[in-house]
Structure formats: C-alpha cells, structure tokens
Write a structure and sequence with these properties.
Helices cover 63% and strands 0% of the residues. The chain is mainly alpha-helical. It has one domain. The termini are far apart.
C-alpha cells in the first residue's frame, strides 16, 4: 500500500488526547488521525452539497433540520431559521 507521509504539530495537550484516543480504539496515532481527517473532509463535502441544494431550492425548515438531527442522533444547535 502506498502512503503519503505528513509531519504535523499540535499543542501537547491535544497530542496527549489523540494518543489516548488512539490507544482506546486500539489503533495507531496515524490511523486515528487519518480517520479523523477523512471524517472532516466528508463533513465539509456534505456541507457543500447541502449548501448547493439549498441554493437551488428553499432552505431546509426547522422541522426538516430537527428530523435530520434526530435521525443522526446529534444535538442541533439552538439557532433557528425564521419561518
């Protein structure tokens, strides 16, 4: 398997937390950070797709956003869209 080696720096507290999180999941720090980076990229792509969708249609309603948050098992920010 081909890999791309990167060198990163972070605050010592964050580094320690990453090492602990990787150990808890039984993965290497490199694998843990790669998974976190992949998650972040997917989130950014999803956000861009949703922005594009809303640009061509009406914005999502509070009801739709609440239903999506429930389906995903996440807490939605308090910010409400005027209806």
């Amino acid at each position: 398997m081909q890999v791309d080696r990167l060198s990163i720096t972070m605050d010592p507290e964050l580094g320690a937390a990453v090492r602990e999180a990787a150990a808890r999941t039984g993965t290497s720090v490199s694998a843990w950070i790669a998974a976190a980076a992949a998650d972040r990229l997917r989130n950014q792509l999803l956000g861009a797709a949703l922005d594009a969708w809303e640009a061509g249609a009406e914005p999502f309603s509070n009801r739709e956003l609440d239903a999506a948050a429930r389906a995903l098992g996440v807490t939605r920010p308090i910010r409400r869209i005027p209806t």
